[in-house]
Design brief:
Blueprint lengths: L2 H4 L5 H13 L2 E2 H7 L5 H9 L3 E3 L2 E3 L5 E2 L6 E3 L2 E2 L9 E6 L28 E3 L6 E8 L2 H8 L7 E8 L4 H9 L1 E3 L2 E3 L3 E7 L3 E8 L6 H8 L4 E9 L2 E2 L8 E3 L2 H8 L22 H4 L17 H53 L9
Parallel strand pairs: 9-15
Antiparallel strand pairs: 1-4, 2-3, 2-5, 5-6, 7-9, 7-17, 8-9, 10-14, 10-15, 11-12, 13-14, 15-16
Helix pairs in contact: 3-4
Length: 365
Protein backbone atom coordinates (compact mmCIF):
# COMPACT_ATOMS: atom_id res chain seq x y z
CA UNK A 1 0.00 0.00 0.00
CA UNK A 2 1.40 3.42 -0.96
CA UNK A 3 2.24 6.31 1.31
CA UNK A 4 -0.82 8.30 0.19
CA UNK A 5 -3.25 5.53 1.06
CA UNK A 6 -1.58 4.69 4.38
CA UNK A 7 -1.44 8.25 5.73
CA UNK A 8 -4.72 9.95 6.54
CA UNK A 9 -5.10 13.11 8.56
CA UNK A 10 -7.59 12.02 11.17
CA UNK A 11 -5.74 12.34 14.45
CA UNK A 12 -4.98 15.17 16.82
CA UNK A 13 -1.28 14.47 16.37
CA UNK A 14 -1.55 14.97 12.60
CA UNK A 15 -3.45 18.22 13.02
CA UNK A 16 -0.85 19.45 15.50
CA UNK A 17 1.92 18.62 13.08
CA UNK A 18 0.12 20.58 10.34
CA UNK A 19 -0.27 23.52 12.67
CA UNK A 20 3.42 23.45 13.47
CA UNK A 21 4.25 23.38 9.78
CA UNK A 22 2.02 26.38 9.10
CA UNK A 23 3.68 28.48 11.80
CA UNK A 24 7.32 27.46 11.83
CA UNK A 25 8.47 27.92 8.23
CA UNK A 26 8.12 30.50 5.49
CA UNK A 27 7.59 28.80 2.10
CA UNK A 28 4.13 27.77 0.97
CA UNK A 29 3.82 24.12 0.00
CA UNK A 30 2.40 24.83 -3.48
CA UNK A 31 5.36 27.09 -4.25
CA UNK A 32 7.83 24.39 -3.19
CA UNK A 33 6.08 21.90 -5.50
CA UNK A 34 6.08 24.37 -8.38
CA UNK A 35 9.74 25.30 -7.85
CA UNK A 36 10.66 21.62 -7.98
CA UNK A 37 9.31 21.51 -11.53
CA UNK A 38 6.35 19.21 -10.88
CA UNK A 39 3.68 21.56 -12.16
CA UNK A 40 2.50 25.16 -11.96
CA UNK A 41 1.55 26.71 -8.62
CA UNK A 42 -2.15 26.72 -9.48
CA UNK A 43 -2.13 23.01 -10.36
CA UNK A 44 -0.03 22.29 -7.26
CA UNK A 45 -2.88 23.74 -5.21
CA UNK A 46 -5.26 21.28 -6.87
CA UNK A 47 -2.91 18.40 -6.03
CA UNK A 48 -2.98 19.45 -2.38
CA UNK A 49 -6.76 19.76 -2.27
CA UNK A 50 -7.08 16.32 -3.90
CA UNK A 51 -5.00 14.75 -1.12
CA UNK A 52 -2.11 13.79 -3.39
CA UNK A 53 0.58 15.60 -1.37
CA UNK A 54 2.17 14.51 1.91
CA UNK A 55 4.60 16.31 4.22
CA UNK A 56 6.73 14.17 6.55
CA UNK A 57 4.34 11.24 6.02
CA UNK A 58 1.17 13.24 6.63
CA UNK A 59 -1.30 13.92 3.83
CA UNK A 60 -2.07 17.62 3.38
CA UNK A 61 -5.49 18.59 2.06
CA UNK A 62 -5.63 22.29 2.90
CA UNK A 63 -3.89 25.32 1.46
CA UNK A 64 -1.72 27.58 3.60
CA UNK A 65 0.70 24.91 4.82
CA UNK A 66 4.32 26.04 4.76
CA UNK A 67 7.41 23.87 4.71
CA UNK A 68 11.17 24.10 5.04
CA UNK A 69 12.62 22.56 1.85
CA UNK A 70 15.85 21.72 3.70
CA UNK A 71 14.15 19.92 6.62
CA UNK A 72 10.76 18.60 5.53
CA UNK A 73 10.15 15.61 3.24
CA UNK A 74 7.48 16.23 0.62
CA UNK A 75 5.82 13.48 -1.44
CA UNK A 76 3.61 14.06 -4.50
CA UNK A 77 1.67 11.04 -5.72
CA UNK A 78 3.81 8.80 -3.48
CA UNK A 79 6.99 10.10 -5.13
CA UNK A 80 9.57 12.08 -3.09
CA UNK A 81 10.05 15.67 -4.17
CA UNK A 82 13.51 16.83 -5.21
CA UNK A 83 13.35 20.27 -3.57
CA UNK A 84 16.98 20.99 -4.39
CA UNK A 85 16.43 21.01 -8.13
CA UNK A 86 18.67 23.75 -9.56
CA UNK A 87 18.60 23.72 -13.35
CA UNK A 88 15.63 25.54 -14.83
CA UNK A 89 14.46 24.77 -18.36
CA UNK A 90 12.60 27.21 -20.61
CA UNK A 91 11.59 26.26 -24.13
CA UNK A 92 9.23 27.29 -26.93
CA UNK A 93 7.42 24.41 -28.58
CA UNK A 94 5.59 24.61 -31.89
CA UNK A 95 2.73 22.31 -30.92
CA UNK A 96 1.22 20.43 -33.86
CA UNK A 97 -2.49 19.85 -34.24
CA UNK A 98 -3.77 16.60 -32.73
CA UNK A 99 -1.46 16.61 -29.70
CA UNK A 100 -2.72 16.84 -26.10
CA UNK A 101 -1.39 19.73 -23.97
CA UNK A 102 -0.94 17.73 -20.81
CA UNK A 103 1.68 15.67 -19.00
CA UNK A 104 -0.42 12.47 -19.05
CA UNK A 105 -3.48 11.53 -21.07
CA UNK A 106 -5.82 8.88 -19.59
CA UNK A 107 -6.91 7.84 -23.10
CA UNK A 108 -3.34 7.19 -24.20
CA UNK A 109 -3.22 9.90 -26.86
CA UNK A 110 0.04 11.55 -27.83
CA UNK A 111 0.96 14.52 -25.60
CA UNK A 112 3.43 17.39 -25.83
CA UNK A 113 5.69 15.38 -23.51
CA UNK A 114 6.31 12.96 -26.39
CA UNK A 115 7.84 15.84 -28.34
CA UNK A 116 10.42 16.74 -25.67
CA UNK A 117 11.66 13.31 -24.64
CA UNK A 118 15.29 14.37 -25.04
CA UNK A 119 14.89 16.99 -22.28
CA UNK A 120 16.42 15.39 -19.18
CA UNK A 121 14.67 17.61 -16.62
CA UNK A 122 10.99 17.13 -15.82
CA UNK A 123 9.06 19.97 -17.48
CA UNK A 124 5.40 20.73 -18.11
CA UNK A 125 3.33 22.99 -20.42
CA UNK A 126 2.48 26.55 -19.41
CA UNK A 127 -1.17 27.27 -20.16
CA UNK A 128 -3.11 25.33 -22.76
CA UNK A 129 -3.62 24.85 -26.47
CA UNK A 130 -6.50 22.46 -27.05
CA UNK A 131 -6.22 19.24 -29.04
CA UNK A 132 -7.21 20.82 -32.36
CA UNK A 133 -5.10 23.97 -31.91
CA UNK A 134 -1.45 24.45 -32.78
CA UNK A 135 1.40 26.90 -32.43
CA UNK A 136 3.38 28.55 -29.64
CA UNK A 137 3.46 26.73 -26.31
CA UNK A 138 5.87 27.46 -23.45
CA UNK A 139 7.24 24.59 -21.36
CA UNK A 140 9.30 24.85 -18.19
CA UNK A 141 10.02 23.44 -14.73
CA UNK A 142 9.95 26.90 -13.11
CA UNK A 143 6.65 27.19 -11.25
CA UNK A 144 6.99 30.88 -10.39
CA UNK A 145 7.72 31.70 -14.04
CA UNK A 146 4.76 29.62 -15.21
CA UNK A 147 2.43 31.35 -12.77
CA UNK A 148 3.54 34.79 -13.96
CA UNK A 149 3.01 33.84 -17.60
CA UNK A 150 -0.47 32.44 -16.96
CA UNK A 151 -1.49 35.32 -14.67
CA UNK A 152 0.52 38.39 -15.78
CA UNK A 153 0.16 41.78 -14.11
CA UNK A 154 -1.12 43.46 -17.20
CA UNK A 155 -2.38 42.36 -20.62
CA UNK A 156 -0.07 40.47 -22.95
CA UNK A 157 -1.10 40.67 -26.60
CA UNK A 158 -1.36 37.24 -28.22
CA UNK A 159 -1.67 36.85 -31.99
CA UNK A 160 -3.57 33.96 -33.57
CA UNK A 161 -4.23 32.95 -37.16
CA UNK A 162 -7.56 31.19 -37.64
CA UNK A 163 -8.98 29.48 -40.71
CA UNK A 164 -12.77 29.28 -40.85
CA UNK A 165 -15.12 27.54 -43.26
CA UNK A 166 -16.81 29.71 -45.88
CA UNK A 167 -16.53 33.36 -46.87
CA UNK A 168 -16.35 36.06 -44.20
CA UNK A 169 -18.60 38.97 -45.14
CA UNK A 170 -18.32 42.58 -43.93
CA UNK A 171 -21.26 41.94 -41.59
CA UNK A 172 -19.56 38.93 -40.00
CA UNK A 173 -16.30 40.83 -39.60
CA UNK A 174 -18.18 43.66 -37.89
CA UNK A 175 -19.69 41.19 -35.38
CA UNK A 176 -16.29 39.68 -34.60
CA UNK A 177 -14.81 43.10 -33.91
CA UNK A 178 -17.74 44.19 -31.74
CA UNK A 179 -17.37 41.24 -29.35
CA UNK A 180 -19.95 39.07 -27.59
CA UNK A 181 -21.23 38.39 -24.09
CA UNK A 182 -20.49 34.80 -23.01
CA UNK A 183 -20.63 32.62 -19.91
CA UNK A 184 -17.02 33.61 -19.11
CA UNK A 185 -17.64 37.34 -19.54
CA UNK A 186 -17.50 39.84 -22.38
CA UNK A 187 -15.19 38.72 -25.18
CA UNK A 188 -13.78 41.38 -27.46
CA UNK A 189 -10.53 41.02 -29.42
CA UNK A 190 -8.12 43.94 -29.67
CA UNK A 191 -8.05 43.57 -33.44
CA UNK A 192 -9.51 41.33 -36.16
CA UNK A 193 -8.56 41.35 -39.85
CA UNK A 194 -8.82 39.15 -42.96
CA UNK A 195 -5.41 38.01 -44.21
CA UNK A 196 -6.23 35.41 -46.89
CA UNK A 197 -9.20 34.22 -48.93
CA UNK A 198 -9.28 30.64 -50.19
CA UNK A 199 -11.82 29.07 -52.55
CA UNK A 200 -14.13 27.99 -49.74
CA UNK A 201 -12.38 29.11 -46.53
CA UNK A 202 -10.99 32.30 -44.99
CA UNK A 203 -7.94 33.07 -42.85
CA UNK A 204 -8.46 35.62 -40.05
CA UNK A 205 -5.91 37.18 -37.70
CA UNK A 206 -7.03 37.77 -34.10
CA UNK A 207 -5.15 39.84 -31.52
CA UNK A 208 -6.22 39.20 -27.94
CA UNK A 209 -5.43 40.95 -24.68
CA UNK A 210 -6.97 38.97 -21.82
CA UNK A 211 -6.90 35.60 -23.55
CA UNK A 212 -9.79 33.91 -21.73
CA UNK A 213 -10.34 30.17 -22.04
CA UNK A 214 -11.28 29.19 -25.64
CA UNK A 215 -11.94 32.86 -26.38
CA UNK A 216 -11.54 32.65 -30.16
CA UNK A 217 -13.65 29.51 -30.55
CA UNK A 218 -16.37 30.98 -28.32
CA UNK A 219 -16.33 34.23 -30.28
CA UNK A 220 -16.43 32.50 -33.67
CA UNK A 221 -19.21 30.11 -32.69
CA UNK A 222 -21.29 32.96 -31.25
CA UNK A 223 -21.01 34.66 -34.66
CA UNK A 224 -22.00 31.46 -36.44
CA UNK A 225 -18.49 30.59 -37.66
CA UNK A 226 -16.82 27.18 -37.61
CA UNK A 227 -13.07 27.04 -36.98
CA UNK A 228 -11.05 24.74 -39.23
CA UNK A 229 -7.56 25.59 -37.91
CA UNK A 230 -6.29 27.73 -35.04
CA UNK A 231 -2.64 28.65 -34.59
CA UNK A 232 -1.05 30.81 -31.87
CA UNK A 233 1.78 32.83 -33.38
CA UNK A 234 2.99 35.10 -30.60
CA UNK A 235 2.85 35.97 -26.92
CA UNK A 236 3.98 39.57 -26.75
CA UNK A 237 7.13 39.72 -28.88
CA UNK A 238 7.81 35.99 -28.45
CA UNK A 239 7.07 34.17 -31.69
CA UNK A 240 6.96 30.59 -32.93
CA UNK A 241 8.08 31.61 -36.42
CA UNK A 242 11.11 29.65 -37.61
CA UNK A 243 10.31 26.60 -35.45
CA UNK A 244 8.98 23.57 -37.32
CA UNK A 245 5.80 21.89 -36.00
CA UNK A 246 6.78 19.33 -33.37
CA UNK A 247 10.14 21.04 -32.73
CA UNK A 248 11.23 23.40 -29.98
CA UNK A 249 13.79 26.07 -29.17
CA UNK A 250 15.44 26.52 -25.77
CA UNK A 251 15.89 30.07 -24.43
CA UNK A 252 16.91 31.59 -21.13
CA UNK A 253 14.33 32.96 -18.70
CA UNK A 254 15.64 36.47 -19.30
CA UNK A 255 15.31 36.12 -23.09
CA UNK A 256 11.71 34.95 -22.87
CA UNK A 257 10.67 37.63 -20.37
CA UNK A 258 12.35 40.35 -22.46
CA UNK A 259 10.58 39.17 -25.61
CA UNK A 260 7.22 39.05 -23.85
CA UNK A 261 7.85 42.44 -22.24
CA UNK A 262 7.65 41.26 -18.64
CA UNK A 263 9.85 41.58 -15.54
CA UNK A 264 10.64 38.79 -13.05
CA UNK A 265 7.56 39.57 -10.96
CA UNK A 266 5.17 39.16 -13.88
CA UNK A 267 4.64 42.91 -14.33
CA UNK A 268 4.27 44.06 -17.93
CA UNK A 269 6.89 46.71 -18.63
CA UNK A 270 6.69 46.87 -22.42
CA UNK A 271 3.97 46.18 -24.98
CA UNK A 272 5.10 44.58 -28.22
CA UNK A 273 3.19 45.08 -31.46
CA UNK A 274 3.86 42.05 -33.63
CA UNK A 275 4.40 43.10 -37.24
CA UNK A 276 2.94 40.49 -39.56
CA UNK A 277 4.16 40.25 -43.16
CA UNK A 278 0.64 39.36 -44.30
CA UNK A 279 -1.40 42.23 -45.68
CA UNK A 280 -4.99 42.94 -44.70
CA UNK A 281 -7.77 42.28 -47.22
CA UNK A 282 -10.27 45.11 -47.50
CA UNK A 283 -13.67 43.47 -47.95
CA UNK A 284 -15.25 46.74 -49.05
CA UNK A 285 -12.89 46.84 -52.02
CA UNK A 286 -12.32 43.17 -52.83
CA UNK A 287 -15.47 41.71 -51.31
CA UNK A 288 -15.95 38.17 -49.98
CA UNK A 289 -15.16 35.20 -52.22
CA UNK A 290 -18.08 33.67 -54.22
CA UNK A 291 -18.88 30.71 -51.97
CA UNK A 292 -21.14 29.85 -49.02
CA UNK A 293 -21.07 32.47 -46.25
CA UNK A 294 -19.01 31.55 -43.18
CA UNK A 295 -22.01 31.74 -40.84
CA UNK A 296 -23.97 29.09 -42.77
CA UNK A 297 -25.25 26.40 -40.39
CA UNK A 298 -24.06 23.62 -42.71
CA UNK A 299 -20.50 24.10 -41.44
CA UNK A 300 -21.46 23.46 -37.81
CA UNK A 301 -20.90 19.72 -38.21
CA UNK A 302 -17.17 20.46 -38.31
CA UNK A 303 -17.15 22.08 -34.87
CA UNK A 304 -15.16 20.70 -32.01
CA UNK A 305 -17.93 18.71 -30.32
CA UNK A 306 -18.83 16.89 -33.56
CA UNK A 307 -15.48 17.13 -35.33
CA UNK A 308 -14.28 13.56 -34.77
CA UNK A 309 -17.66 12.03 -35.62
CA UNK A 310 -17.79 14.10 -38.82
CA UNK A 311 -14.22 13.24 -39.78
CA UNK A 312 -14.92 9.56 -39.11
CA UNK A 313 -18.04 9.76 -41.25
CA UNK A 314 -16.11 11.44 -44.08
CA UNK A 315 -13.29 8.89 -43.84
CA UNK A 316 -15.79 6.02 -43.95
CA UNK A 317 -17.47 7.64 -46.94
CA UNK A 318 -14.11 8.01 -48.66
CA UNK A 319 -13.32 4.33 -48.05
CA UNK A 320 -16.77 3.32 -49.26
CA UNK A 321 -16.47 5.39 -52.45
CA UNK A 322 -12.98 4.00 -53.07
CA UNK A 323 -14.33 0.44 -52.68
CA UNK A 324 -17.23 1.21 -55.01
CA UNK A 325 -14.81 2.63 -57.56
CA UNK A 326 -12.61 -0.46 -57.23
CA UNK A 327 -15.61 -2.75 -57.71
CA UNK A 328 -16.75 -0.73 -60.72
CA UNK A 329 -13.28 -0.91 -62.24
CA UNK A 330 -13.20 -4.67 -61.67
CA UNK A 331 -16.66 -5.04 -63.20
CA UNK A 332 -15.61 -2.98 -66.25
CA UNK A 333 -12.51 -5.13 -66.72
CA UNK A 334 -14.56 -8.30 -66.34
CA UNK A 335 -17.11 -7.05 -68.87
CA UNK A 336 -14.39 -6.24 -71.40
CA UNK A 337 -12.81 -9.65 -70.79
CA UNK A 338 -16.12 -11.40 -71.41
CA UNK A 339 -16.62 -9.44 -74.62
CA UNK A 340 -13.15 -10.46 -75.81
CA UNK A 341 -13.86 -14.07 -74.95
CA UNK A 342 -17.17 -13.92 -76.82
CA UNK A 343 -15.50 -12.45 -79.92
CA UNK A 344 -12.86 -15.15 -79.74
CA UNK A 345 -15.48 -17.89 -79.60
CA UNK A 346 -17.36 -16.34 -82.53
CA UNK A 347 -14.17 -16.26 -84.61
CA UNK A 348 -13.41 -19.86 -83.75
CA UNK A 349 -16.97 -20.92 -84.63
CA UNK A 350 -16.78 -19.05 -87.91
CA UNK A 351 -13.53 -20.81 -88.85
CA UNK A 352 -15.01 -24.15 -87.84
CA UNK A 353 -18.13 -23.53 -89.93
CA UNK A 354 -16.03 -22.53 -92.95
CA UNK A 355 -13.89 -25.66 -92.63
CA UNK A 356 -16.88 -27.95 -92.27
CA UNK A 357 -18.54 -26.56 -95.42
CA UNK A 358 -15.75 -27.67 -97.88
CA UNK A 359 -16.96 -30.62 -100.25
CA UNK A 360 -13.75 -31.15 -102.23
CA UNK A 361 -10.12 -30.86 -101.43
CA UNK A 362 -7.32 -30.74 -104.02
CA UNK A 363 -4.30 -32.82 -103.08
CA UNK A 364 -0.96 -32.25 -104.83
CA UNK A 365 1.30 -35.22 -105.58
Amino acid sequence: MGLMSESIINSKQSRDRLGTLMKAVAIRLQKVIADAGITSRRKAENLILEGRVAVNGTIVTELGVKVDPNEDVVHVNDEPLDVNRKEKIYLILNKPRGIMTTVNDPEGRQTVMDLVQDVTERIYPVGRLDYLSEGLLLMTNDGEFANNIIHPRGNVTKVYEVKVFGAVTPEILKKLRAGIQSEVGFLKPKNVRIIKQLRSKTWIEFRLGDGKNREIRRLCEACGLTVDKLKRLTIGGLTVEGIKPGSYRTLSKKQILNLIGMDDSGQMIKEYDYQSTKKSINLRIKGPQPCTAADDHAFSKFRRETYFATIKELDEKKVRLAEEERQKMFADKEEKHQKRQLKKKLRQKKKSDQKGGVHAEIIKW
